[in-house]
Design goal:
single chain; mainly alpha; Globin-like; 8 helices; binds phycocyanobilin
């Protein structure tokens, strides 16, 4: 598992280089947004269940077939599994946000996930829509909390989306 700092150090150490301009810029951006990242993490941990609930409501409003008979989130068990998955995405994204690195997502969330979803017929398209809705719900909430630049929030959610949507070979 990596964060911005350990990620840079290992990259530069492999080639025995001092941190160059690019590395310094990336460290500056990371530390510059540090307070906001911590604020975001605190907000998420205090409001996780309402963020998940709002995301689920938006998802099922946009794709009501999911919770109708025949839909993958139909039956209480699967409905609950879907909200639980959204909760996983939120929690792990909050870790990645604090770390400034998406390694934790690859390692703990994405590993084997597409295969699991395929075998259970969990639809990837609607899952990706759910992840993007969660990003929007969270960004709106954080902006309302006075965090002006929430672009660091996009990174983990977009990473999850990109990795999940990639066609398996
Ligand atoms: C199931 N989601 C699962 C399963 C796993 C995960 C492993 C199968 C085992 C189980 O039911 O618990 C996901 N597990 C994870 C993740 C981690 C993990 C991400 C990392 C920490 O340990 N169905 C929909 C929606 C979507 C959905 C689009 C919600 C956004 O229609 C999710 N996931 C969903 C559902 C199931 C599931 C409904 C149950 C499927 C079934 O058993 O038929």
């Amino acid at each position: 598992m990596r964060d911005t700092v350990t990620g840079l150090i290992s990259t530069y150490d492999i080639t025995g280089r001092y941190l160059d301009r690019e590395a310094i810029d990336s460290l500056r951006a990371y530390f510059g947004s540090g307070t906001d990242r911590v604020k975001a993490a605190a907000y998420i941990s205090a409001n996780a269940s309402s963020l998940v609930k709002a995301t689920g409501a938006a998802l099922f409003e946009q794709i009501p077939e999911l919770i109708r008979p025949g839909g993958n989130a139909y039956t209480t068990r699967r409905y609950a599994a879907c909200l639980r998955d959204l909760d996983y995405y939120l929690r792990y994204s909050s870790y990645a946000m604090v770390a400034g690195n998406c390694d934790v997502l690859t390692e703990r969330v994405l590993n084997g996930l597409r295969e699991t979803y395929n075998s259970l017929e969990v639809p990837v398209g609607p899952t990706v829509i759910g992840i993007q809705l969660m990003k929007d719900v969270l960004k709106d909430a954080l902006e309302a909390q006075g965090i002006a630049n929430t672009s660091f929030v996009d990174v983990p959610f977009d990473h999850l989306t990109r990795e999940l949507s990639e066609v398996s070979v």
